[in-house]
What we know:
By secondary structure, the chain is an alpha/beta fold. The protein has 9 helices and 13 strands. It has a 7-stranded mixed β-sheet. Strands 2-1-3-4-6-5 form a 6-stranded parallel β-sheet, sandwiched between helices. Strand 1 (2-7), helix 1 and strand 2 form a beta-alpha-beta unit.
Amino acid sequence: MYKVFIDGSAGTTGLRIAERLSGRPGVALLSIPDAERKDVSARLGRIAEADVTILCLPDDGAREIVRAVGAAGVDARIIDCSTAHRTDRAWLYGLPEAVPHKETRRIANPGCHATGFILAVRPLVEAGLIEPGALLCAHSVTGYSGGGKAMIAQYEGVRGSDALLLEAPRQYGLSQQHKHLPEMLVYAGLSQPPVFSPIVADFYAGMLVSVALPGAEPGRGAKVTPKAVQRALAEYYAGCPLVHVRALGYDPEGGFLSANAFERRDDAELLVLGQGAVGPDGQARVTVVCRFDNLGKGASGAAIQNMNLMLGLPETEGLVVAG
């Protein structure tokens, strides 16, 4: 029986993890009284008892408890769902499809937007279809659950003077300083961050990350065509149970893609869209789209996948995978 402690189980990600692990054979969730949720000593006791601790805390809170664990000499396995340690080389970045898993006691769970971007881009950089120095443009449509309790309350509560604005998709991260950009840069294999436009819309969960691919310069680089891109992605993710690379022409919704189609699932799909050479420049127009649940493969599902790997369990145990 593996004991798991979720530090921050009252938040959106923590609640979903607890829901998935509750009643799972071979797993026992360690609880803590509400009055002790901020008591570092009480939390350290649970962390010492647990086989794995999953942190679902704000960045500062995650850093604080990790420092406390180190100071107390607690030999703990920790998965951190905050942004705090994602580019810290002492932590393994928990996207095993792109960063191979290895035995470790520290895993940084990826950000949701970053998950879709890295899954779409890293294989193409490694295949030479995207130059590391390319300036990419990406946009990501997400459900409002990604904003946590405050945003959920804003969308699901009594709407006041901003009711009309909440009905339409809203772009944010307008300063190009979104907190996921550092990990997107590092783990996609790029030398400069993309121009990134995240968009929140009036639906609970789901995510659609789209990346426009630059054509190769004349005489340089591989030929960027839909066929070449789809082949590179399919070869890279062959055997990955949680990433499905769709065939060219895959059209599940008659010319549309809904961002919430993967709600309550823990897997992701990649689609290559566009056409071959068009226009006087002879360049193909190609986009790669990654679709998944921002609370599934983008957060809670990823944490459980990383927990499984950390404990040597089947990677997809306890996850919802539809293929």
